[in-house]
Amino acid sequence: MMSGPNAYTVISEQNDHDCTTVRAHPRNETFHVVEYADEDARDRVADLPVGSVVKMELSRAGRRSNVWRAESVRTAHTDGGTVGE
Fold this sequence. Notes:
The chain is mainly β. It has one helix at residues 39-46, and strands spanning 6-12, 20-24, 30-36, 53-60, 67-77. It is 9% helix and 45% strand. A hairpin with a 7-residue loop joins strand 1 (6-12) and strand 2 (20-24).
């Protein structure tokens, strides 16, 4: 299952295991992003502080529940209000 690009708020910054927790708008569902389409996607997410809003397209990462792969990543704005690519 793959989602279309949706807006998510970072609620937990990327940890040492490359896991970032995000909350979907407007449904308030929580997703644990543990895989990335490429290093660029991983690096973009790694740079996001808590409170940042990002547009991502997610797909399931394996068969485990609620773990996801970021297929595309585009920053909407960070907690500082910056607009990114």
